[in-house]
Amino acid sequence: MLASGTIARTLQYGLERIFEKNPVTTNQNTTTTTQQLLQKSSAQTAHSIVAVLLMILVSSVGIGGLLLTATTSASTTAFDRLFMPNSISRWLSAIISGAFVVWDIPTSIRLKKKPDVIVHHVVMAVLTILGATALPTWYCLYYFGVAELSSILLILYDQIHSWRELSYDEQPSSLWMTSATWESTTQAVAAVAFTLVRAISFPYVTIRYFVPDCWILWKGAASTRVTKKNWILLFIMTLSIGFTLLQLYWFSLMVKTIIFRDKEGDPE
Fold first, then answer.
1. Which region holds residue 234: left if phi is over 0, alpha if psi is between -120 and 50, else beta?
2. For the whole model, what pTM was predicted?
3. Cα separation of 221 and 236, whole Å?
4. Are 62 and 146 in contact (CB under 8 A)?
5. What is the C-alpha separation between 122 and 252, in angstroms, rounded?
């Protein structure tokens, strides 16, 4: 569990040192501006790169795991889907929990990220620890894997937006103008991905499948196998609804950002 966090933290440290000392540039006219940009955003840029690599890994594992179990999951019971140990889910949860606890949360605090983002990751760390130990449920493949597809594009957009703001603050240049094109492109693609995955797919899977499975077992806990797990059912069912509302809240913020950013114009 801790191995993934150690690897991520080592990558974070190594990339920060590279950006601070040896920034990569391809255009001599923008060497100074690019160097300053990478040096000033070394920690944030390194965090984004490691985060994208992590999200690519976990989303690939989640998709692969669902494809491998697609034929069997449809015929299983609610108890099997929730409580039958899934080895891929356990591995996936262990990778994420280790990365969050050892690398992401400490780094996010150091970078002074928004409180709601840090709290969200702390709760995710708790859930993934649960998934790696007591509850390696089949649903982890979706929530900790497939659902992170949109995170890849969101991280890229946030990083490009950060670069653009920083390059403008330092010195408006061709780099700033170029990043504007990339920002608008990644914003559009990330908005589509977030809408499909987090605003449509996530609530659908939760309301259509996850919550009903939890409710069936929690309400009719006649089986002794389920009775001892009632607190877990109530816990994960409540959190799933809370996370769904959070996705919809973030979706509303994204819509507001897209609508009003053009009206506000570029920073001065």
1. alpha
2. 0.86
3. 16
4. yes
5. 22
Alpha helices in the chain (DSSP H): 2-21, 31-40, 42-73, 78-83, 87-99, 105-110, 115-132, 140-143, 149-170, 174-194, 202-205, 211-219, 224-227, 230-264
Which two structure tokens, joined as six digits, stand for 67? 């494809």
Cα gap 245→255, rounded to integer Å: 15
- Cα(117)–Cα(45) distance, rounded to whole angstroms? 17
Span 85-110, pLDDT tens digits: 999 999 999 999 999 999 999 999 99
The total of other beta-carbon atoms located within 10 Å of residue 13's CB is 14
Q: What is the pLDDT of residues 153-182, one digit of tens each?
A: 999 999 988 888 776 655 555 555 566 778
Handedness of CA 151, 127, 107, 258 (dihedral sign): positive
The alpha carbon of residue 211 and the mean position of all alpha carbons in its chain are separated, in whole angstroms, by 22
For the CA atoms of 104, 110, 113, 117, the dihedral, rounded to the nearest 10 degrees, stands at 40
Between CA 158 and CA 153 the distance in angstroms is: 9
Query: Per-residue b/e over 159-179, b at no fewer than 16 CB within 10 Å?
Result: bbbbbbbbbbeeeebebbeeb
C-alpha to C-alpha distance for 60 and 264, rounded to whole angstroms: 38
Phi first, then psi: give them for residue 41, nearest 5 degrees. -115, 25
Closest CA to 90 of 30, 152, 133: 133
pLDDT digits (tens, 9 = 90+) for 197-217: 999 999 999 999 999 999 988
Phi, then psi, of 120 in degrees rounded to 5: -60, -40
